[in-house]
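Something for you to look into today, if you have time. Could you write out one complete protein record for me, on any chain you like? The space below this message is yours for that.
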Amino acid sequence: MTGNKDFKVLFINCNTMMDVLLPVGLSLISACLKEKGFGVKLFDTTFYKTATETGDEARAKNLQVKKTNREEFGLVYKDTDMFEDLKTMVEEYKPDIIGLSCIECTYELGIEMLNNIRHYYNVPMIVGGIFASFAPAEIIAEDCVDMVCVGEGEYALVELCTKIREKQDITSVQNMWIKQDGKIHKNGIRTPVELDDLPFQDWTIFEPRRFYKPMGGKISMTGTFEMNRGCPYSCRFCSDYGLNKLYADNGGYYREKSIKRLIDEMKEKKERYNLEFAYLVAESFLTTKRERIAEFIELYKEVDIPFWIEARPESINEENIKLLESSGCEGISLGIESGNMELRRNLLGRNMNDETILKAFSLLEKSSLRVSANNIIGFPTETRENIFETIEFNRKINVPGVMVSLYNPYKGTALREYCDEEGLMQKDAHAGDYRSETVLNMPQISREELLNLQKTFPLYVKFPKSEWPRIENCEGNDQEAEALYEELSREYTEKYL
């Protein structure tokens, strides 16, 4: 297979600015291609100034995380022109195929990059990623796009590149929509990959500074590891709803990697990259068999670096907390999403009662783990009163980290279908970055009010109610409101961050 090295793949990672957490998907696809002898190179937009502020800056401004000094770790912007740098790489590397990886909020920039390439270089161009899986018809209609990967890309890309290299027919490659001779070939979904059969991730395609991830006010060499893929639940605001639907007739999307395989990869990467922190990709770390958690905790002693997880409230009990504390788990994020139980159950598809959530946070409060509560505001039909129910709910749980995102109707989710039906977003509009923007036009609450509630949410949660009139005065956008917000922000930062 060594002859394949003559066949070169260029990936464009059209990323949100300064989001340095390593993407598992691209790392695995690169590893699979290299395993079969193909050449792989990456153009990464992470360090180009493609937006007015980073996600971390938005979160720090809205009092959700501590400000970090990323510059001392070399996390600075490139001072060159992104499109010129891309042109230089394309013309020097001379790839045989170009693949764009993007999410919904970076899609428009990604397509602009592919259109730009078409002016000076002509090879097949493919788009993949979570957004591509749910919007293939929109994407394949772009003049600059020849193929769209729907679903998993590891084996699909290897088969596609092999067939192009061997000059074989590519129109029947599963997981692919192929545009050829004026016709679009829409192929079905292949069997989901066995996670244990995949090679370890390839991180050599990234710049070394991609490993420096801000977390909890400090910056650590961080690795991302896939513990399982997908989620057994189908919350209506989450893309796992769409993935479960996409793979429903093909064995289902959710599957788990064996603990031994996961630990072997973590050990190899820790040694090779001097990792100081691990982020585990598991939509709900504790939603699995107890034996699996116990096995992870036992074998993780061989890795022995702090790690962060996400979990669902109903999976929290004293036994699980003790296991996590004994293993080096530093922090845990739990989703509240909304403090209104009816909205949570009927609109979001999160079938858990208030008592379950309150009990989970009560148990965690007694632990040594750093706890963060995830909230979302701006759901369709949600009112200001509903948002204050979420604020009141957070006041009951006394959690150190109050995270609040703006709801965005991502393609592939059940709520996106609802928003389209109700005309809550412009036709052909794309969802934005949940940390700083919302694209919905709702009759009951304005975008401006939502943005102001996002920034004041932590203040309403932590400050005494006697301060609420002052906090409400911060919700304006005039100079007086901004000065008051600055004053209260300083006080909040000193006390709670």
Summary: The CA atoms of residues 200 and 268 lie 9 Å apart.
